């Protein structure tokens, strides 16, 4: 017997320990003025209870626990899953009896997640007033009492009247109801399902105006087409009280509305009848019965007031129940057109309303659309209602499937905007070509005339249109146009390409008839993009990496082939460089000549770029990106051409040398002239020679010294000449050499000619002229004397003064007079005698004096 009782006792002890281990404990601190109540669900967990506090002061209850004090309290459940058995209600009373009372309601969002939570707010205002509930911009949507909200947040409004409580309605978030006003007293309830994070719609409580109905609901209907349902209080059980309910509807402009009673249950009236009163703008109010046709195709804001009769309240007799629907839709006459794209291969259209505030309604084949898309190769009927042209935007896209390189290229194909249907009420805002390449080919893009220019901050495209060129993966290469100073001859892009024409100074692209680009297909390239450029001599040319300034795609590359004109050199500057921190690989910039014979230069992201790079000939510039870890790789550079001077260096040096030589010669000439002017002048005497020519003694006869010539050697010397200085009767001037003026002279021979009286010759500047001509006629050096019967013959100007010269006309003439007239017949000395010809002294001036004829 003992052996049987012991196991039972052990089992009871273990069961008790298990129950204790299954206890659930939470800490609760109610807010001030808030009551927290834990209530057991009907028919759930009869063996589970809730306890307050711990130790000897602990109190437990199997049905209900209410916490009213704003202090920390320990709540214990003797079951492991109390959320399946108990619910939590958080109640707050709000007394808003003053006009200035405005209270924002926001329930706690963090506590009691494991329970089904019910938040209640008991509201009270002055008697005869409305308490007013203002909901946020999203508003509320009324549903049937049997329905639930998709987000598991269900609101309900209850009013307390003398006849008893009445359920105004059940609501979900995100609807058209912006305000609810209820007479005097009521309650707002928010029920949140177990395990659902609380995300409530805050609302404001205030005291409204004097009540004219039991309930007044404000509704803001959105743009059509739209419809919403509304229900009378106590919709499930019926409404018996003789009260009024009013709905105020705000309708958008250019909209019509229809009112339709979908479900109506008539009460058994003891006094009065059920009526529907309408107020519509400036129109007079009018009434309808629930069984009449309600207003349709009306415009403007309106209100509907439903007045119940004094219904018989019996369990078997239903009360008033009404479910009605309000539908709004656009008014006006739409513009209709048809678009046929079956004759234009690959062309599609898109039309979009860019003004969300407008009341534009667009339809495609009678179906309302926010954005109309007409696929390629289709025909569509379009409708536009109240759509201003300036609010609409039309874009077109044309897909071109390029043939493979092996088949045949499409060199010379031009991109031209096709003609669109003239019935379209919208101007063409943008046109895009999608070039799809087969066999991994390359798209070559060229300007129809001239070259292309890339639009950059320092030099943007200001032409009528520009072209945005992108890779189909979404990376922009750049924006380009064709200008007078364009430098890009060709752009090569690997793979598919998107080209979008954007208007700059035109409103309708369909008016642009000319070709925009020429397209060709070439074999695949190693880089993603290759530019072929020819810089201008007039100014710098800018080079920007693809997608500037946002940076190149990871592991992508770009190259520029730069052609430098002859006799020029190029200066490459890296004006703006953004370097990334590479995760894999390195960025690299490489510059080298095209002929692959010169030296290349390269830099990575961890190296500093030079300020400038000089290239003497055509070259290439290549840039490749790494797999960036952070930042981006973007480079803006520019190229300037400079005139090459090395081929003209010899000419320039020669010219400089000639100029320098002329300067030196001029300096020497100046110095010599100065020296002559500063040289002391010797006294010169003239000798009168009858029937001869006067001359100035000095250096004129002998330019050499006596030591250098044989002018002092004579065949015979006369005594007077040899010993004349011993003659005391001779004048002292002859003896001391004054007569000779210090010059070396030959022996004196006395003149034995006739002693006829001859007038003294007068010297004049004209007599010393070497060459006096009247036109081409020869003028003698001196006028012939009167004693000669014949005119004086002409004599040589230079040879006459030489020792090697002798005139035959004076031969055998003792007086050395001319025997006959005629031309001078000189007789040259022998070879030995010719050595005795007088020459210019070595120390004489560079400019010898004029020679004079000496008659001996």
Automatic annotation (TrEMBL):
Q: Where is the composition biased (Acidic residues)?
A: 842-856
Keyword vocabulary terms for this entry: Membrane, Signal, Transmembrane, Transmembrane helix
Q: Domain CDCP1 third and sixth CUB: where? A: 222-313, 527-639
Q: Give the top-rank taxon of the lineage listed in the UniProt record for this protein.
A: Eukaryota
Record field: transmembrane? 648-673
- Pfam families membership: CDCP1_CUB_6, CUB_CDCP1_1, CUB_CDCP1_2
> Which stretch is the leader sequence?
1-23
* Location of region: Disordered: 818-856
- Domain CDCP1 first CUB, chain residue ranges per copy: 25-96
What is the name of the protein in this document?
Answer: CUB domain-containing protein 1
